[in-house]
Input
Amino acid sequence: MLKRMIYHRVVLAGLMVVLTCLAHSAEPLKVGMIAPLTGPAAEEGRYNVQGAELAAEEVNKNGWRARPTS
Amino acid sequence: MLGRPVELVIEDDQTTNSGVVLAFTKLAGDKDIPAFIGPIRSTSVHAMAPDVQRLGKPVMIGGTDPQLTHMGNPWLFRFRPNDAYSARVIADYGVNTLGKKKWAIVYSTDAFGTSGMKKLVEDLKGMDVEPALVQGYTNNSQDFTPVVLAVKQSSVDVMATYMTFGADQAIFASEGGPARQATLAVASINATHLTPIVCDPEAV
Output
């Protein structure tokens, strides 16, 4: 009986760890970005941001894929 | 990524070094940010480098000054060719492919332009070419006529530029265009932006 109780508690604890990890995994992975959005380099800054947003969109849609260079 | 969606947290550096430091300080305060995409301008990266080292988190940089990744800061990672590479390519293309021997170099006097200019002068000297004109200018110049005239008067047959801002390059190109008196007709090889107006069509 005691063994069964310990077993259930261990399984429950494990399940809680997994659920906690799953909940955590849904949180976004933040990447800080510094870009010139105003001032003389604002035009280049806009391109920088658009490129980063495009990359983030692709990663979020298709996942990270290592690809061979040609 | 790692089963989590990527979210960009973007801060404006206002195209100033103090703005870069402020923006990085703000982002560094967010403990949930493990890595950063940094500025593409060398002068900006130099300004924030001490704070990056103190924080100890990776920062991807576009700054092309070779020194940036050789000054003992292990947290700066460059994602584009540095000026040593671009200078070598520019010198090789101008001398060996275009066959040009009389050079003018126009450069911004900031970290990017100065570093690029020095590397290009060095590489050209290694090819037995002494530039006829090495002309600096300050970022955000509103009038490039003196620079255009200097290039014109030096009678060079090729011009290389290290210009930081696209707006400066556009003004420079228009000063050298057919609508202005100081028309340039010289092959132009540029480290950053295109200047189709001043390019010799044969060299494009």
